[in-house]
Amino acid sequence: MTFQWTVSHEARLVTATVSGEVGLGDFPAFFTAIAEAGALPYRKLVDIRFATLEFHLADIKAFGQTIDVANRSVKAGPTAVVAKSELAQDFAHTYEDHTHLDRPIGIFVTIEEARSWLDRVAPVTRS
Could you tell me the CA-to-CA distances from 112 to 41, 76, 117 in Å, in that order? Predict the structure, then answer.
C-alpha cells in the first residue's frame, strides 16, 4: 500500500494518492498529518483510482462517524474523490452518505474534473 500526500498552504490544498491494497486502518495517519499541518479546512483531492479497497460497508459507516467526531471543532474543506472503478465510487458515495460534516464532497473519474470542481466550490483568493 502506498499512501502519499502533500499539503500546499499557498493553494489551501491537500493532495493524496492512494494505491495498492488499502484498509480503513491506513487512513488515520493521513488525517492526523492533515490536522497537525493545520489543513483540515483546506480543499482535499483524494485519488483512489489505483487502490484496492479492503473493507466492508459497516467499516465505512464507522469511519464516517469517527471523522465526524474528529472534525467537530474545525470546519472541514471540500473533498474531491477521484475513483475509477465502480467499487471505489461506491466507497466514496457510502463515505459521503455516512459523514455529516458541513462540507461538499464530489466524486469524479478524472483529476481534471476534480480540480475544476474544487476551484468552483472553493476558489483560492490571493491576498
Answer: 21, 22, 9
**What are the b/e assignments for 69-78, b being 16+ CB within 10 Å?**
ebbeeeebbb
In this model, does residue 58 exceed pLDDT 80? no
For the record, the C-alpha cell of 1 comes out as 500500500
The residue type at 14: V
Please state the pTM of the whole predicted model.
0.80
Round to the nearest angstrom and report the end-to-end CA distance of the chain: 39
Q: Are 92 and 84 in contact (CB under 8 A)?
A: no
DSSP state of 108: E
